[in-house]
Amino acid sequence: MTSPLDLTGLDLLVRVAETGSVGAAARQLGMAQPNASRLLAKLERQLDLTLLVRTTAGSRLTTEGEVVVAWARDALAGVERVLLGARSLAAQRKAHLTVASSLTVAEHLAPRWLARFRREHPDLHVSLDVGNSHHVLERVVSGRVPLGFVESPTVPRTVASTTVARDRLLVVVGPTHAWARRRTPVTAAELVGSDLVLREAGSGTRETLVRALDLAGHALGEQRLELASTAAVKAAAAEGGAAGVVSELAVAAELATGQLVAVPVADLDLSRSLRAVWSPERRPEGPAAALVRLARADAQASPSSSV
């Protein structure tokens, strides 16, 4: 054989075996009889076999033709299994949305978004892949997830993005810390010179603080404890030994109970955008696009995280 077999030709041959007629088989496939005859002749040339004996009464298979028809039925059944399996996989993928999210969004915004999203899309299974902003961007760029939410101050050119909410960082201390009783704002210079407890490198919270300090002409000092979760930062700050820097979204309860105290900072802009990100080649569509719209609408309705 000099070229791949045409599956339509095999299907046609099987139908000739079943109907006893090239014309009838051609009609089943919506094909003109002359075209069907040419396709069968091509198949015979490719296989170097005579498959049919054509008579005025119809067409019948040769011995070789009967063997080829048996093989063709197996081949066509295999192709049908492939098509059915592929459709099933595609349906499962469409019914399953995996979203990556940075910790602040995952802990304080995504639960509300996804609860509402589930009410609107009850047949869709949604998974949340949680990590820091660097992890989320890596998952989106690599194509492992179609959509992510990050809190870093900037995003690379390898992704497209839209702002879905606003947030700001707060400097917080325990009630026994000296700054808890302070009446004047802390300066950026004092902040970088003090003991701090911060999120790890790669987190959006950490990157927002570093960028704000850089714009104010300061660099992060060495006197810091680095922890991998906001909950750990809050717990360490509450002990009173060091100031923590966390999202305003994350400390509402602790501020209300007095477990933590917010400390004003005089000369730092600690506001930030929370963004949905995706690959430029995979613009959100269907459920992913609906989730982005829902997140934006939720933020507009919520004063604490309005766009």
From TrEMBL:
Entry keyword set: DNA-binding, Transcription, Transcription regulation
Gene3D superfamilies with a match to the protein in the record: Periplasmic binding protein-like II, Winged helix-like DNA-binding domain superfamily/Winged helix DNA-binding domain
Lineage: superkingdom: Bacteria
Record SUPFAM superfamilies: Periplasmic binding protein-like II, Winged helix' DNA-binding domain
Residue ranges of every copy of the HTH lysR-type domain listed in the record: 5-62
Record InterPro entries: LysR_HTH_N, LysR_subst-bd, WH-like_DNA-bd_sf, WH_DNA-bd_sf
Family per similarity comment: Belongs to the LysR transcriptional regulatory family.
Protein name: LysR substrate-binding domain-containing protein
Species the sequence originates in: Nocardioides abyssi
Taxonomic classification: Bacteria, Bacillati, Actinomycetota, Actinomycetes, Propionibacteriales
